[in-house]
Amino acid sequence: MTDRVIRWLQILGNIGVIGGLILVALQMRQNTEITRAQLAHDAWIANTSMTNAVMGEEPALTKSQIFVHENELSDKDIVAIDAYFRTIQAQIYRIEYTNNIGLDLYSPELTARSVAVSFVDGYGRIWWDLNKEDLFFFAPKISNEIEALLQSDGVPGESDRFKKFADAVRDSAGDDT
User: Fold this and answer.
1) Could you tell me which residues come within 8 angstroms of residue 56 by beta carbon, excluding any fewer than 6 positions away?
2) Residue 50 burial (10 A CB sphere; 0-12, 13-18, 19+)
């Protein structure tokens, strides 16, 4: 073989190595995206499981106590309500942490919009005011977004939404009779 043929074989071999490295990089990127999706899924499953576990045997009844019978809360209801807000707190921490390590599952703005509704009125606002110092320490980006939303009054409260929904359901049930 001549030197010219050897050089061409070396060039082709190098091109093959570079092509292989590009394929490995693409596979790593795809695996990272799959891992991100799995983490997002696991985070929501964990949050749902925690919420169900801490809200007791009848979470819907406990939540309705907040909106409908707020003056009739038992100690058990208060513990369950605090646990509900603590699960939101844990989710905020988890999202801020994953964002800080570069996974960026949810933006601070999206997270704040999805959870701020829980802190707008009633017990949610009381809980936020009592616990926001810890939230600002451990999850400053998301907490700043939540605080900005709460200060702007740009988020309707859960009790407002619940009462409107309940009224609409009752009105539609009344129409059927």
Assistant:
1) 62, 76, 80
2) middle
| Domain around 52 | 35-176
Residue 27 covered by a domain: no
Residues of the chain scoring pLDDT < 50: 177
Which pTM does this prediction carry? 0.61
Judge whether 120 and 158 are in contact, CB under 8 Å: yes
pLDDT, tens digit, 9 for 90 and up, residues 114-158: 888 888 877 888 999 999 999 999 899 999 999 998 888 767 666
In angstroms, the Cα distances linking 168 to 99, 121, 138, 163, 172 are 39, 21, 40, 8, 6
Q: Answer whether residue 14 is part of any domain.
A: no
Could you give the number of structural domains in the chain?
1
- Alpha-carbon torsion angle 160, 166, 168, 174, nearest 10: -150
Helix (H, G, I), strand (E, B) or coil at 68: coil
Measure the CA–CA gap between 139 and 144, rounded to whole angstroms: 9
